[in-house]
Amino acid sequence: MHIQFINSIQQISPAQWNALCPDGYPFIRHEFIAALELSDSTTAETGWQPQHLLIFSGAQLIAAMPGYIKTHSYGEYVFDWAWADAYRRHNLPYYPKWINAIPFTPCTGPRLLCAPGMQSGELIDRVVQTLSTYCIEHNLSGWHCLFPDDNLSEQFKQRHIPQRIGCQFHWFNHHYKSFDDFLARMNSRKRKNILKERKQVKEQGFYFSSKTGTQLTPEDWDLFYQLYRNTYLKRSGHAGYLSAQFFHSLGATMHDNLVLICAHNSTHERADNTIAAALFIRDERTIYGRYWGCMEEFQFLHFETCYYQGIEFAIAHNIERFDGGAQGEHKIARGFEPTLTYSNHWINRQDFAGAIAHFIGQEANAIKHYAEDARAMLPFKNKDE
C-alpha cells in the first residue's frame, strides 16, 4: 500500500478518481474539485492549498481524500475560530492546518473514497496514522474531517478522533404530489403564513423560470455570476469565494447536476428582467441549495426563489431531500427539519487536544437539545389533529 499527497487534482485522471465515487453525490467528483482549482478558487493565495491524499495498491488507486492546507477558517462552516483564538492567546500558531472537506460546501457526503470492498479498518487506521504523521512532520496544528457521512465519522470516533456535532435544516419529501399537498401537512397558521409570503411575491410582479442540463448557456453563467457577485459585494464588501470561471466550468462539465431558477419581474423597466437567481446542484436523491444572487432586494423573494421553488422542483422530480445549506432557523417554519451533521478533529498538541475534546463533548449535549427544541417548533400538524 503506497500513500502520497498531490497538490492538484489534475495530477490524477478523472476516470481514476471518479471510479472511487460511491454514488451520485456531486461535490466530491473530479469535475467539481477541478472547477474550484481551475478557477483559482482554491489556491495557496486564497488559503485553500490543495493537498489531496491518494492511496495505491501497486499501480491501482484504491482510496482518496480531498484535502487542503488552510491558513484561515473561512468557507468551512464548522466554526473553530475560538480554538484559533486560544492558540493566539498562548502565542502559538493554529494555522496552517489540514482539512478533509469540500470547499465552501457544508453538505454531508463521502469524504474517504474507496474502491469496492476496500474501506476496511486497516485502511482507516493507515489514513489516521498518515494524516497525524503528516501534521507532525509539517508543523500543522491538526487535521479535520468536515461533513463526512455517519459511518466514516463513527470510524474516526472509534479511533479517538473526537466527533463534533452540528445541526442543519433539511426538507424531506414525504411522498408529496404537489406543493399544496406539502402545505396540507402544516397547521393552519403556518400554512397561511407561507401562502401569504408567496402571494406577496406574485403581487410584486415576479414569475419564475428554471433551466437544467444543456438548456444552460454561457450567457446564463455570466448573468448568474453578476447576481452572485452583486450580492456578496452588498453583504460583505468582497466579490465572493467563487469566480465566473467556476460557474462556466460547472456548466461545461456537470450540467446534468445543475438547476438554475431565475426570478423575473414583469414590471421592471430593464429589457432583461431577471432580478434574482438561485443555483441548485442535484443528484438522484437530493437537491442542494448552493448559491444565490440578486440585483435588488424584495420582500420574501429570497424565500421564494431559494426554498419554495426548490421544494416545488423536488416534488415534481420525486427528489427525496432538499439540503438548504448551513444554519438558518428561519427554515423551520418552512418545513425544514433539524438534521445532525458531523465532523472529526485531530489536534497535534495534547494539551489543546484535551481541552478541545472536552468542549466538543459539552457542545454535543447542547446541540442535541437544540435539535429537539427545533423539532418541537416544526409547523406540521400533530398526528391526532
What does this protein structure show overall?
- The protein is an alpha+beta fold.
- The protein has eleven helices and 15 strands.
- It has two domains: 2-167 and 339-376, Aminopeptidase; 174-319, Gcn5-related N-acetyltransferase (GNAT) (Aminopeptidase, 3-Layer(aba) Sandwich), CATH 3.40.630.30.
- The protein has helices at 14-18, 30-38, 81-89, 121-137, 150-158, 179-183, 188-203, 218-236, 244-253, 301-316, 350-376; strands at residues 2-6, 48-50, 52-57, 60-65, 68-70, 97-100, 113-114, 142-146, 163-172, 206-212, 258-265, 274-282, 286-294, 321-323, 337-347.
- Helix 10 (301-316) links the parallel strand 13 and strand 14 (321-323).
CATH superfamily placement of the largest domain: Gcn5-related N-acetyltransferase (GNAT)
| Shape assignment | globular
Strands ordered across the widest β-sheet: 2-5-6-8-15-9-14-13-12-11-10
Q: Provide mean pLDDT, rounded.
A: 95
- Number of H/I helices: 11
Chain-wise SSE layout:
Elements (H helix, E strand, L loop, with lengths): L1 E5 L7 H5 L11 H9 L9 E3 L1 E6 L2 E6 L2 E3 L10 H9 L7 E4 L12 E2 L6 H17 L4 E5 L3 H9 L4 E10 L6 H5 L4 H16 L2 E7 L5 H19 L7 H10 L4 E8 L8 E9 L3 E9 L6 H16 L4 E3 L13 E11 L2 H27 L9
Parallel strand pairs: 6-8, 13-14
Antiparallel strand pairs: 1-3, 2-5, 3-4, 4-7, 5-6, 8-15, 9-14, 9-15, 10-11, 11-12, 12-13
Helix pairs in contact: 2-9, 8-9
